[in-house]
Design brief:
Number of strands: 9
Number of helices: 3
Largest sheet: 4 strands, mixed
Oligomer: single chain
Order of helices and strands: HEHEEEEHEEEE
Radius of gyration: 19 Å
Strand content: 15-25%
Structural class: alpha/beta
Helix content: 10-25%
Length: 180
């Protein structure tokens, strides 16, 4: 509905005006970054094969979950000292979660443009469906992991989004942008 779209856009503009501090006045974050995101998988080996063997993110630890005996906790290196962690919870009868409030919509992982092209070729060769380039978003490959978790392989560098540096730096666009 056109009226609803106008209202949504007006509300977004209102929130931006109220809460978005310009980069030159914005305080530095008091966080160092995401240590790890912790997700749930149905099968440890299937998850390792997807993230390490297909996408190229090395498995760097696999231990028992300290909070749930019999469960595994394992980590993949996403570069830049960032980890993607997983748990399995055998015996709990968990099911795939529907997309909804409180769930992860997708995880965007930045990869260099050359790696982006290699991964696209690997996905094509493996017959794995993805979206993004087909919809006119050449810098993004959207796919689902074996448990349905949304993954975006993004060729843009960290802190670059929508044609600008989100951290306020006054530098030209990176030369190797896929989207131009």
């Amino acid at each position: 509905d056109a009226d609803e779209l106008v209202q949504i856009t007006a509300r977004r503009d209102e929130l931006r005006a109220k809460h978005l501090i310009p980069a030159d006045r914005r305080p530095a974050s008091n966080a160092r970054g995401i240590h790890h995101a912790a997700l749930i998988c149905s099968d440890v080996e299937q998850t390792i094969e997807f993230y390490q063997d297909l996408l190229g993110f090395p498995l760097i630890e696999l231990v028992e979950n300290r909070d749930y005996p019999g469960s595994s906790h394992f980590f993949f290196d996403l570069g830049n000292q960032t980890l993607l962690g997983f748990f399995d919870f055998p015996g709990l009868g968990l099911e795939r979660a529907p997309e909804g409030y409180g769930n992860v919509q997708h995880i965007a992982i930045s990869v260099p443009p050359s790696v982006h092209a290699e991964l696209r070729s690997k996905l094509d060769a493996a017959g794995i469906q993805y979206d993004g380039p087909q919809r006119g978003i050449p810098e993004s490959i959207y796919l689902r992991d074996p448990d349905g978790i949304g993954i975006e392989l993004l060729a843009d560098p960290l802190m670059w989004f929508g044609g600008q540096w989100l951290d306020g730096r006054d530098e030209p666009a990176p030369e190797d942008l896929i989207s131009g």
